[in-house]
Amino acid sequence: MPDNSMMPGEAGAPPSPASVASKEGELANATVSQVAGEAPPMKTIVQVADVQELVNALDSVMDRVTDGAGGHVPYKPESRSKSVKVPLPREVWEPLFGIAGAIGVMAKMPGGEVVAPYVFDPMTAADGTAMADATGMLNRLSMDDKAIKFIQTTITKANPTGEKETPAQEAVEKPTDQSPAEEAGETHMPAGA
C-alpha cells in the first residue's frame, strides 16, 4: 500500500499547488527554443532532400495558418552531402516541435477533433520513415481547410489584438512535459518497435 504521508516537495510526493503554478508560470514565459531543447539524434542516415521536404511542409502549414504572413524555415544544409546522420538543425526542429505542440493542445479543445488526426510526436522524427510520415501529415494538414480554419480561429481567440502568431509561438503558451501525441491521448509506436 502506498505511503501517502509524504509532504509536498519530498522525493516521490505530489507537488504542491504553489509549485505547480510556479512551474506553469515559468513555462508560459519560455520560448520555443527553451521548451523544445535539442532535436533527437537521427537513428538512421536521412537524405538532405527529405529534410528539405519536411521544411517545405512546415512552410506550407505556416503559410496557410497565417494567410501567407508567416515566416519561412531558413534551412540551409551545412554539408554538400546528399545524406546525413545528424539531428535536425535547430531552425527546423523548433518549428516542428512548436507546430506539433500546438496541434496537440488544440486537439483537446472543444472542436479540436478536426486537428486530432494531425497529432504527432516530433521526437519520433529521427529516421527517414518517421520524417516522411511527419512530412505527409503536415502536407495533409496544410490542405485541410477545416483544420486550418480551426487553428486560425483558436489563435485569433488567444490573441485578440490581431497580431498573428505562428503555431510554434502558440504552442509555447501551454507547454507540458508530455509529448504532443501523449497530450492528445495517442500512443503510436515508433516504426520498427
Helical fraction equals 40-55%
Strand order of the largest sheet: 1-2
Mean pLDDT: 75
Question: Structural class given helices, strands, pairing?
Answer: mainly alpha
Q: Which value, in Å, is the CA radius of gyration?
A: 18 Å
Order of helices and strands: HHEHEHHHHH
Largest sheet: 2 strands, antiparallel
Could you state the oligomeric state of the chains shown? single chain
Shape: elongated
Total of helices: 8
Uncertain residue segments: 1-29, 164-181, 186-193
Count of β-strands? 2
List keywords for this structure.
single chain, 193 residues, mainly alpha, two-stranded antiparallel ribbon, 8 helices, 2 strands, disordered N terminus
Structure description:
The structure is a single chain. The protein is mainly alpha-helical and 193 residues long. It contains 8 helices and 2 strands. The longest helix is centred in the first third of the chain and has 18 residues, at 48-65. The chain has one domain (17-183). The chain is elongated. A two-stranded antiparallel ribbon has the order 1-2. It has helices at 17-28, 32-36, 48-65, 90-107, 128-143, 145-158, 167-171, 180-183, and strands at 46-47, 83-84. Residues 1-29, 164-181 and 186-193 have low confidence and may be disordered. The protein starts with 16 loop residues before the first helix and ends in a 10-residue tail after the last helix.
